[in-house]
Every structure is written in C-alpha cells, then in structure tokens.
Amino acid sequence: MDIWINIILFVAILAPFFLIITFTPQMTPNIYSFGIRIPENAYNLDEIVLLRKKFRNTHLLFSLLFTIFFISISVYFSNEAAQATGLIICIIGFLIADFFIYLHCHKKMKVIRNNMNWAIEKKQPIVIDTSFRNEKLTYSNGLFSIHAFICFITILITISFYPELPNQIPTKFNWDGTITTYSEKTIGLFSVFPLIQFVTILLFMGINILLKRAKQQLNVQNADASKISSIQSRRKWSLFMIGSSLLSVFLFTLFQISYIVPFSPLKLIISTIIITTITITWAIIIARKPINQDTLSSNENFSIQQDDDHFWKLGQFYYNRNDPTLMLEKRFGLGWTFNFARTIAWGILFGPLVLIFGIVLLTA
Question: Where are the domains of the chain?
Fold first, then answer.
C-alpha cells in the first residue's frame, strides 16, 4: 500500500511540472513566439499555431513516457531510494528533452521570421512614457511585514519549547508515522528554517523592487493600451510575489513546528502539494489572459516594433552590455528575467542559493 501512496504523491509532483512546461507557449505574451519577437496579429498564423501544437504534442508524449517509466521503476524496486532516483531521472530527462524540442521550434521560428520579412525596411521606433515611473507599478514592500511576523512567531515558538525538547529530535518518518531517523538537538538544527524564511523574505522584497524598476516596453502601435496593460501586469506579478512568498514562509513554519510536535509525513507532503498547486495555478491565471481585440492596432500590415532578437541568446537569455536595464519581461514562459550582461544579475541569481547552502552547512 505504501508503495502506491508514494507513487501517487510523486506523480502529483511530476504532473504539474510536466504540464507547465508543455503549455509554456500558450502562457507567453502574444508578441513572442519561441523567443522570437513577432507582430501581435501574427500570433494566429497557421505556421505558428502548428509549431505550438507540435511543441505541445511532443511534450505530452514525453510526459506519458516518463510517467510510465517512473511507475515501472517504483513497482519493480519497491523502495523509496529507487523512487527518488526515478523521480530525479524523470525530471532531468524531461528537461533535456524540453531543451531540444524548444531549440528545434526556436530555429523553425527564426526561419518563419526571416521568410516573413517582418523587420526589413520598416521603421522601428521605441516609445518611452516619462510618466510611467510615477504610476503605482507594484504593491508596497510594507506587506512583507506579515511575512516577518510569521517568521517572528516561528522563532518565538522555537525558543519557548527548545529547553523542554529531548536531546534526540525525530527528523524522518515512515508513512505510518514511525520514526526512522533522529538528529541531535542543536541550535543549528532549529535555526535552519527561520533563516531560510528570512532569506526568502529578503529575496522576494528585492524582486518586488526590481519589478518596479524593470524595463519599460510599450507597443508603439497602441502605447496607451500597452501602458495600462504593463501596469496591470506588474501589479499582478507583484501581488503574486508577495502572496507566493507568504505561502512559502508559512510552509517553512510547518516544517519547523514538525520538529516540536511531530506531524504525519503525509500531512506535510499534502500541505506542500497544496501550496505548490495554489502557487502554480495563480501564476498560470496571471499569465493566461486572452487577447483584447480592441487594443490591437488597426494597421493590417504585419510588422514588429523593434528588432532586438540578436540580444536574446537562444531566445531566452537577454545579454546587452549597452542596456542599463537589470530586469525585463521573459520571451518564453512566465514572469521576468535578467539582463545577464549585468554582473549584479548573477549575484541576485546565485547569491540566495549560496546563502542557503551556507546556512545548511553552518547549522549541520
């Protein structure tokens, strides 16, 4: 019975992962297709629609194959180590397959762009709204005080119960709640999750600030509507950053309390899946918005407002030494990305990982 509970839970983790990657083209802004800038009214061209379908169907096939592989490995070996290994193989294998499928579609999209001559002999003006920064682009970082309060409560609970706890703390359990591993009670052990909460709060506060300062990208064909859309998008993503980080901080509190009052591992995993599902669904709702035909240009000519594809490596990594921008909208997928020509971008990207890794080492 335990083996099938494990399989169901792991498949519940794999399924959203597979589906998000599979339907990424549908969640990308309509002025981009596989990392290539296109006219907004070219989004539904037969060639581009067919390319999206090919991407989707190929990913669905690989999703099915890797799921079957994982279930087969789990049933055959019937142990948690094999399941964990199978899960890692499935995730890495799917990401490798995804890269080559995307690369194929990206190259095909380049051919379509060149054949359509969208950028040749056409003016490519750039619109800058000087009042844009005066708008309320993001929610206040003051809302992170809620996160800080939860972190404070976590620390307070830990300090209150720490003296009364036994010297050996249960840290791993079977599905039936049987303790399998004990760890020595140390300040380091009980500091990990509060420190991770603190890093999470700082990280998302920083992202919220960067989101406000991110590059202004307005559509020259309808600048007013584009401005409104950009402001709404930033505010939605800002609220998402605040909300999703709040859920993460709350989840770390549950993990911390499990050291004090042992929870059923099944409850912790279900809590993790619920919070992950809420976060993913929220992100998809923000990204998946229909085209408003009233905001499209009345100009029937297919053209792009700016040909900057050469700054986007593989259509996903922006690298422009002459652009002071640190953050801008992604061309493939959800959210925002960095200008990797800026050194600080690498620090923001890897700094939190190094910090968390250091915390784990120091508290081990």
Answer: 1-122, 124-290+306-364
